[in-house]
Write a structure and sequence with these properties.
The complex is a heterodimer of chains A (301) and B (307). Chain A is mainly alpha-helical and 301 residues long. Helix content of chain A is 73%, strand content 3%. Chain A is built from 12 helices and 2 strands. In chain A, strands 1-2 form a two-stranded antiparallel sheet. In chain A, a hairpin with a 2-residue loop joins β1 and β2. In chain A, α1 crosses α10, α3 packs across α9 and α10 crosses α11. The longest helix of chain A is centred in the first third of the chain and has 33 residues. Chain B has 307 residues and is mostly helical. In chain B, 77% of the residues lie in helices and 1% in strands. A two-stranded antiparallel sheet of chain B has the order 1-2. In chain B, α10 packs across α11. The longest helix of chain B has 28 residues. Chain B starts with a helix and ends with a helix. The chains are: A mainly alpha (301), B mainly alpha (307). The interface between A and B is large, with 47 and 46 residues.
Chain lengths: 301, 307
Amino acid sequence: MFFNILPLALVDGVAYACLLFLVSMGLTLIFGVMGILNVAHGAFYAFGGYAAASFIIMIAPSTESAWIPLISLFLVAIVVGTVLGGLMELLLIRRAQAYDPILKLLLTFGALLMLEDIQRLIWGAQPYSASEVVNRLGNIELGDITYTTYQLVVVPLTALVAYVGLEYFLRYTNLGKQMVAVTHNREVAISQGINARKIGMITFIIGAILGVLGGALASPTTSLVPGVGADMIVLSFAVVATAGLGQITGALVAALLIGIVRSIAVYMAPEFEVAVPYIIMCLVLLVRPHGLFTVAQARTI
Amino acid sequence: MIYAISIIGAVAALVAGYFTSWVITPIIIGITYAIAALGVSVMMRAGQVSFGHAMYACISAYTVAFLARAYPSLDVVVLILAGVLVAVAASMVIGVFVARYRGIFFGMLNLALSMVLFALLGKLYHLTGGTDGLRIERPTILGMELERAPYEFALLAITVFIALALAWWIQRYFRSGDGEALAAIKTNETRLEYLGFSAYSVMWRGYLISAVVVGFSGSLLALIQGLVTPEIGLWLRSGEYVFIAILGGAGHVIGAFLGALVFEAVKLVSTAYFPGLWQFILGLTLIIVIFLFPRGIVGELSKRIKF
């Protein structure tokens, strides 16, 4: 039984983990650079999913190609992410720089409540899905099991490119290095002539695009219903806390761990599926109180 | 001044309930929100925000439901106390674990545990009735079997009494040595330890006290609704409690009650005038409050009036 379902659970789990990783990477990047745990990130995910699904439902009948819907997923993510992230940074985050972390978190909680109602106003309560993308890309057979190309190739590849791209950006580009400098010491960075405001805006937009992209990529395989954003944010909190706050590579490992175990649970013990990520998180934090990849800091008075 | 406001508030709630019986349920539910926010504000005193405290309301509510179904002869008072007791027992165990954590990790761990509970309650139908929840038959109050209207009024009286007692107790706790030590965790934990306190056990006791308070809100909520569902423990509910505590401000326990009053009023007005947008308006209110009055209603008031 276990070995029969393992390959299927593994592919499902990895595809799911990749979506989770994209969302968590955005969340952890924003936290790392700006010190804000953005609860509204879940709404970004939901907006991405709805926007991509409705756009693809709109354009799919006018084209036969498999590529146009796929590419439009990414375009929608970039446009929606830039607009949402940019607006939120401008209206909310920028003004709250000096606030207590808890108040910052609550500000984004307020934004989540607002965005959820806006989402319900635009898309209503009926479920949306863009399954056309998956169908047109076809299947791949490995051994005697058939996988969809979308889940086996497209999703993992996107996550990989996003991960490598972000790491490259942070390490080797000028802008990325400035971002890291702001992360380490905002004041010193500013005194060295770095424009922290600009960095904040760019970080937030990149983070938002990643969250929105997660939703857009999820839209062909899951059906979107109200509340999906709130579910996703709690789950990516679990990933980010398991990994250690601000740890991008950690988020990758934690997302894979949680995604795969969860998908095995879906097949083996479906009652516990929803609880699995949080149980993993609690177990990890029991052993390593600040997450898998955080280096302990000395206490100072 | 504060005492006068509290007594006037309590009397007003009772009088309103006595003359117009349909307001009883919303008043009790409003007070349970205030009590829960009071529990959350105990932790906020230490600078810690829990996004999972609704879990204790949920534990206590389900305890009431299970007991009331298994032993229909149990009295309301016994049910309330039993619910609180189980919630506290749970918090003793969970507290050992979470009292080590601060900041985001504290908030997230509570959130995670409440999600586990929420998920299990929804999935284990044969035990918990799944997402439909469990009904509770109307129990006796102090040995009396009451019709619906007097039952609800008696419950209102009990709720008001409990709310006053908890407010008094928590205010005393805040002014006690242990309560001041709890506040010191927010300011400077290391210095607190240099003074010879164990920050861990101060935190653990504070956590227990907050669970007692939230436990009361859960028991009362279960009794007035006559129904318990996993929704009681949803993390968004915990978020609302935090919202109320912030709205009210952490200067004095009365903040939780004023916060709940404003929260319910905003909710009522927006559901009446903008039915599809009440959540939007709540979110907007939260943001405006944080920008304009970061110290909440009580903080704002105490700046202007000397109590």
